[in-house]
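Side project, low priority. Logging it here so it doesn't get lost.
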Amino acid sequence: MKIQEKHIAYFLFLIFLAYGLNNYFFERKVFFNEILSLCGFILFLGKTYQRNLVFRFPYSRIYKVVLWLILLGIFQLLVSIFYKTSWYFYFRNSVIVYSMFTFFIGFHFFEYFLRFIRYTRKLIALFLGFALSFPMPVVLLDRFTASGFFPYLFLRSDRVAFLLILVLNVIYAFTYDSLTVIIITLVLAGIELARRYIYLKVLLSAGLVLFLAVFIQLMPYLKLYRSGPYHLFGNVKLVYHQNWLLSLDGNTTWRAVLWYRLLAEKFPENMLGIGMGTPLIEYRPGLNTTESEYDDEYNAHVFGLHNTYLTLFVRLGFLYLILVLLIYDSVLREYYWYRKYYKYNNYYYFFWSFFAITGVGLFNLLLESPTVASLYWISLGFVAKVIYNRRESFALALPADTPPGTLPGKAADTDAGQ
């Protein structure tokens, strides 16, 4: 039997499924993230390269922003050659860049994924049902990445399906003891309850202002991490007892200290990015002062800020922040303006899956980790292709001056974001 493009696509999505549900084995032992990244790079060249160094890109804003992110990452890789700590940590950090190529698997093979998920939906449901009924962390499921697959279990992307997805996430959170999944549930509920894009922007803006105000108030206490005996992450116990907010949760206080050190103390160096193969925080060679199987040098280069978006901001600089905001503006604007279209075509669950994976990165490693990076970029590729297909279909059915949010043959969508 001759191998066709669809067979390659189905194979890659089988890898994607196994990798997403149990990355502990399929990435740490078999390097599925690297396989997906290489295939994404080859697919990108095959779909866009014409001749004589001429490329032809789809008319997709997200697609082009991802290309700029890749170029930014490559630039940082080139510059970092001159001030990296070691080649090992340099290549270890390069996962940030090469994982982005998996985006093109999601984008260019999207139609094949629709068939793949139709064939495998029942099998995925059986596996997830067993994994939730007989929990075996690491062996069956990761602590949070399965949340990205719950939306694919449903044939319709309506309100009932959304409520069932929230229920599954709550079950998952308590079964696998994951606070991250509770956060994912709140992220999904908040986005859906906002109803309009302008409401979500106001909510997020207010949350950011509140966070910054509280963070600035806590900075005098956070800087006390330097007190006492040396520890890679600082004297978090001392900081923990300085203020009632800091004493609510030790893990949160630990993250707050990291954020202070990387965002406040490294300003303005972090505006341009500290690059790859460089330590995020200072360390003393040969010591191991953390509860980790690795020494301080390894952790200083690899651990991240446990907020993946802040980690990439520190490594890639302010331009990364602008580009990622452009991506989320495109995704959220589309989500709110054309919700009736996506509900009618049952494509809403691609947005839900991407938002769930976005939630993973708020308090964990994601884009800087080979164990989960491809899950994010392929899911973003799906969303970008859904948006691209919607625009292509509307371009054929609507006049060029049609207001945003208008469905073919209908008045403007009453759920429009603005």
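Brief comment: Confidence is low (pLDDT under 50) at residues 410-418.
Revisit when time allows.
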